[in-house]
Amino acid sequence: MKLFTTLRSAARRRAAYNRTVAELSNMSVDTALDLNIFHEDVHSIARRAVYGR
To answer: Label partner for 14 (CA 20 to 30 A): which of 6, 34, 47, 52?
Structure first.
């Protein structure tokens, strides 16, 4: 049962990561620059937000 719980948790985190990347990628350039978010940083920001690394 623990394996399924671990897999489900990993799938949820991956889905959250994908949603975060999509949201950051679809942000307008003006808004992103106001927040000091550059296109090259989107994946690392999403990774830190979801996985804490």
So the answer is: 34
Helix (H) or strand (E) holding 23: helix 2-25
Name the pTM for this structure: 0.88
What is the rounded CA–CA span in Å between residue 27 and residue 23? Answer: 6
CB-CB contact of 50 with 17 (8 Å): yes
Q: What residue numbers bound the domain in which 22 lies?
A: 2-51
Q: What is the mean pLDDT of residues 12-26?
A: 98
d(CA 53, CA 39): 19
Residue with tokens 């671990």: 6
Question: How many domains, in total, are found in the chain?
Answer: 1
